[in-house]
Write a structure and sequence with these properties.
257 residues; alpha/beta; Rossmann fold; 6-stranded mixed beta sheet; binds adenosine-5'-triphosphate
Length: 257
């Protein structure tokens, strides 16, 4: 197993945002985490990446309990994520945005950066060529010099993925990567996530685009009001009465809201 979440709970005051949730992800899987708005999906990401401490339970990554580690340590261990709202540096070029991600893995300290030692220059070359390779991987090679704010929406999302991949993760967490994308951009995203999987990276995905989730994921867990109500293959999930009820219920609520 790459990741095991065991009886995870997170309370915000009186609200149980995540309640007794367990699931395991095998190496190389694309695992979907779905559920209506407010079900606790992003909170689950925040628990895995140690942005918040667990109220109780455990997160085991590659056989190691990673509870309480600082978020940067979690990145070093091999978990990286993207966010629901794009968090690029808007004025920096696409290449510079990815270089920032590669830097997290580099060895040079601040002093060697200031004095630009030979080893630091060599490292910078390596960082730039790695960034170029990643831009090519996500289909943005021709946009290296374009500032992030001038990229199309789908391109910005792919740039975020390139930056997350820059730290060489074993487990990549994607929070609603298809949000706001048109059909062509979503198709490109599908291909990209499959390519990431073929590199041996395990993917955990939060996504509301159900056709994409069903096409992409090997297995899916469904949250509703903080609890896991189902887990299985896309076909099993699509036919699960509790899942159908959770989604129809939320649609009805929206209709009458
Ligand atoms: N930092 C926080 N403080 C207090 N309550 C929070 C916090 N973060 C999340 N919540 C609450 O926890 C519940 C779960 O929220 P969460 O964002 O995890 O849901 P979600 O499934 O990701 O929803 P969406 O699909 O809308 O992004 C919600 O009721 C939310 O208001």
């Amino acid at each position: 197993m790459v990741l095991e979440v065991k009886k995870a709970c997170k309370n915000f005051g009186g609200l149980a945002a995540v309640s007794d949730v367990s699931f395991s992800i095998q190496k190389g899987e694309i695992f979907g985490l779905i559920g209506p708005n407010g079900a606790g999906k992003t909170t689950m990401f925040n628990l895995i990446t140690s942005m918040f401490p667990l109220s109780s339970g455990e997160v085991i990554f590659k056989e190691e309990n990673i509870n309480g580690l600082k978020p940067n340590k979690i990145t070093e261990k091999g978990i990286c994520r993207t966010f629901q709202n794009i968090r690029l540096f808007p004025l920096m070029t696409a290449e510079e945005n990815v270089m920032v991600g590669v830097h997290c893995r580099s060895k040079s300290g601040v002093l060697s950066s200031v004095f630009r030692t030979k080893s630091q220059r060599k490292e910078e070359e390596h960082i730039r060529s790695r960034a170029t390779e990643l831009l090519e991987f996500v289909g943005l090679k021709d946009f290296a010099e374009v500032s992030a704010e001038n990229l199309a929406y789908g391109q910005q999302r792919r740039l975020e993925i390139a930056r997350a991949m820059a730290s060489d993760p074993n487990l990549l967490l994607l929070d609603e990567p298809a949000a706001g994308m048109n059909e062509t951009e979503t198709d490109d995203l599908f291909q990209l996530i499959k390519k990431i999987q073929s590199r041996g990276v395990t993917v955990l995905l939060i996504e509301h685009d159900m056709p994409l989730v069903m096409k992409l994921c090997d297995r899916i867990a469904v949250l509703n009001f903080g609890k896991k109500i189902a887990e299985g293959t896309p076909t099993e999930i699509q036919n699960n009465p509790q899942v159908i009820e959770a989604y129809l219920g939320s649609e009805e609520e929206e209709e009458y809201a």
